[in-house]
Amino acid sequence: MSKPRVLQILPMYHSNGEKVLREGAEVIQTNDYEIAHLCSLVKDVEAIVLRAPAKITKEVMDANPHLKVISGAGVGLDNIDVSYATEKGIPVVHAPSVNKVSTAEHAVMLIMALAKSVVPFHENMKKGNYDARNSIPSFELKGKKVGLIGFGNIAQEVAKRLKLGFEMEVTSWVREFIPEKHKYAHEIGVNICTDMEEVFSQSDFISLHIPLNEQTRYSIDQKYFSLMKPSAFLVNTSRGAVVNQDDLYRALNESMIAGAGLDVFDPEPPSKDLPLLSLPNVVLTPHVGGTTVECNYVMATTVAENVINILNGKRPRFIGNPEVLQIKTGE
């Protein structure tokens, strides 16, 4: 019996995921993610696994009316037109939550790096300027106010570490009260707030944990930066496009806020002449918050198993549009 064929666009996050995929399917691999090229390759496969910055658009899906599944390589689905896939009855799978600890640790690291002026001290020490210790300030985290924008899996891990580990005053903004989240927040001593302006204006640190969609795209802009304290810092480990980068540059360059820690950009990779990259009060990492060795292994193998399960008529562990399977199975 021949194996189903899968189009793999760009390497998976861990080689073990590719091993699992190849055990269950015949894999066609490409590193060229131009839409026209993908439309040509997709005609001969039953499934797609892709990694950003590659995208699966309406055109790619229309090029093969017999696609059985599309999968992101990790957590996010913003590089897949999930709405159109749902219209066509194509399951879209991924590996949510598996990166929550890695990304939460990264957000905390950026907060610590900003508070302790790690990068300025490092740069001065390389220049032999030991006296920088007398001119560059650093701050304790204990007692400082941190505002989390969102309170999903990653934000909850951040909240736990900052509240219980550093004794910070943590407030999380949510669109609406959800009993389960409110209960967890109460258990660990985190405040819940539905007024985002209040969170921005009162916090010493803002950490973004919202998904990218049409409502959130470029939503963190001048309006919110103007509310922040001049001594406050912004951290973003969610998606680059939830922030208006031009407004953020202006806020940082004009000292409206003290600094920023960024792991995500719009687009990715960012242009080498992106103004944000030139600022001295920004700590930058190349979207590695959720790509630790441990997390990469779990993400890649979970993704591969999800895809093989659907191709074999089984229910996947994680699916981004579960209504598709309900329609297909009549559940």
Automatic annotation (TrEMBL):
<dbReference type="InterPro" id="IPR050857">
    <property type="entry name" value="D-2-hydroxyacid_DH"/>
</dbReference>
<dbReference type="GO" id="GO:0016616">
    <property type="term" value="F:oxidoreductase activity, acting on the CH-OH group of donors, NAD or NADP as acceptor"/>
</dbReference>
<feature type="domain" description="D-isomer specific 2-hydroxyacid dehydrogenase NAD-binding">
    <location>
        <begin position="108"/>
        <end position="289"/>
    </location>
</feature>
<dbReference type="GO" id="GO:0051287">
    <property type="term" value="F:NAD binding"/>
</dbReference>
<dbReference type="InterPro" id="IPR006139">
    <property type="entry name" value="D-isomer_2_OHA_DH_cat_dom"/>
</dbReference>
<dbReference type="InterPro" id="IPR006140">
    <property type="entry name" value="D-isomer_DH_NAD-bd"/>
</dbReference>
<protein>
    <submittedName>
        <fullName>Hydroxyacid dehydrogenase</fullName>
    </submittedName>
</protein>
<dbReference type="Pfam" id="PF02826">
    <property type="entry name" value="2-Hacid_dh_C"/>
</dbReference>
<dbReference type="InterPro" id="IPR029753">
    <property type="entry name" value="D-isomer_DH_CS"/>
</dbReference>
<keyword id="KW-0520">NAD</keyword>
<dbReference type="InterPro" id="IPR036291">
    <property type="entry name" value="NAD(P)-bd_dom_sf"/>
</dbReference>
<keyword id="KW-0560">Oxidoreductase</keyword>
<comment type="similarity">
    <text>Belongs to the D-isomer specific 2-hydroxyacid dehydrogenase family.</text>
</comment>
<dbReference type="Pfam" id="PF00389">
    <property type="entry name" value="2-Hacid_dh"/>
</dbReference>
<feature type="domain" description="D-isomer specific 2-hydroxyacid dehydrogenase catalytic">
    <location>
        <begin position="15"/>
        <end position="317"/>
    </location>
</feature>
